[in-house]
Design brief:
- By secondary structure, this protein is α/β, with parallel strands linked by helices.
- It has one domain (12-125).
- Helix content is 37%, strand content 18%.
- The chain is built from four helices and four strands.
- The protein has a four-stranded parallel beta sheet, covered by helices on one side.
- The chain is globular, with a radius of gyration of 15 Å.
- The two termini are 25 Å apart.
């Protein structure tokens, strides 16, 4: 996807992951519910690397949908931040969340960071 017409060179994406059972959600511009993603624990994967491989193997359609939703949200930044002189000056924060924030949300965060970097976005993972 050519994103050159969608983004300012200043735009930075910050990706977070969170477990909703650990308290209130961090402040973000966009939230991605990863509870719909295949749980790597059910495939016996306990490490983040193994979880990423498991999710990539079994969740192609879900990952494509998440990537589409993120692209759509980024495209709407100027409309959402219309009162600002430069709507891309502040980073766009995306929070991936699931129940405990240990398997699905961090794995999807890392998968999406690779995809967004490949699309030309500046990505920071926290």
């Amino acid at each position: 996807m050519d994103v050159s017409n969608l983004i300012s060179p200043q735009l930075r994406l910050i990706l977070l992951s969170h477990g909703i059972k650990h308290g209130s959600m961090p402040k973000a511009d966009f939230y991605v519910d990863c509870r719909c993603v295949a749980d790597p624990l059910r495939g016996g994967e306990t490490s983040l690397g193994g979880g990423i491989k498991f999710i990539e193997k079994f969740s192609h359609q879900t990952l494509a949908t998440i990537q589409f939703m993120i692209s759509d949200a980024i495209e709407l930044i100027p409309a959402r931040r219309h009162e600002k002189t430069d709507p891309f000056a502040d980073p766009f924060i995306i929070c991936f969340f699931c129940a405990h924030g240990m398997h699905r949300s961090p794995a999807v965060k890392h998968i999406m960071s690779r995809k967004l970097l490949a699309d030309g976005y500046k990505v920071e993972i926290k």
